[in-house]
Amino acid sequence: MLKVPTSRKRKKPEEKLNLIPIMDSIFIFIFFLLMSATFMKINEVGSDVPIISDVQPPKDEKDPLALTLVVETNEIILSKGLPSRPVQKFSRQADGLFNYEELHSVLVGIKKEHVQENSIIFEPVGDLTYEEIVRIMDAVRKLNKTDDAIYRPNKEGVDEKIKELFSKIIFSNLMS
Q1: N or C: lower Cβ tally within 10 Å for the chain?
Q2: How far apart are CA 170 and CA 163, in angstroms?
């Protein structure tokens, strides 16, 4: 009888797969993807939706300012009061843009007269680009460092400097 060689009977030890190079390549690939991706900073501009109610608003001693910006395709109409009375119109300039600086300076003058007022109604009627809406909102909300200082009394009666013009922007016709 023949004997089976002993080398066949012995089992060879199982070789384990070396995962370190694979893991290194995966981490390098992830790092490459993160470094090549472009990240966008998304900004959000807060705005309130008009409140619809059947209840009559409380009677105030003074008439509300009801500052309204009607933005048409070729002009911006600034009006105030109830019923609405136009204050000023701003037409497009030769370069196709509105005069945002003039709009801003008129709003600064109105803010000086009505320091407690924070809201403005924004009514885009015509076709506008996103950039135009943002520029108009910036002219309405931001108080520039070069503008005259405006003060109003706080709860304790101490005058404090106002940092924004009309920060509460209400869109009037969202469904049209």
Answers
A1: N
A2: 19
Taking alpha carbons only, the member of 170, 84, 58 closest to residue 121 is 170
Q: What is the pLDDT of residue 174?
A: 55
What are the residue ranges spanned by the domains of the chain? 68-171
pTM of the model: 0.63
The torsion region of residue 81 among left (phi > 0), alpha (psi -120 to 50) and beta comes to left
Instruction: Give me the amino acid identity at 102.
Output: E
Structure tokens at 58: 């409380």
Structure tokens at 77: 């109409």
Helix (H) or strand (E) holding 140: helix 130-141
Picking from 152, 118, 142, the residue whose alpha carbon sits closest to that of residue 48 is: 118
Is there a contact between 49 and 171 (Cβ–Cβ < 8 Å)? yes
State the Cα–Cα distance between residues 70 and 125, nearest whole angstrom: 7
Between helix 100-113 and helix 130-141 the angle, nearest 10°, is 30
Report pLDDT digits (tens) over 52-70. 666 666 665 666 788 888 8
Nearest to 84, CA basis, from 63, 107, 115, 105 = 63
Amino acid at 165: L
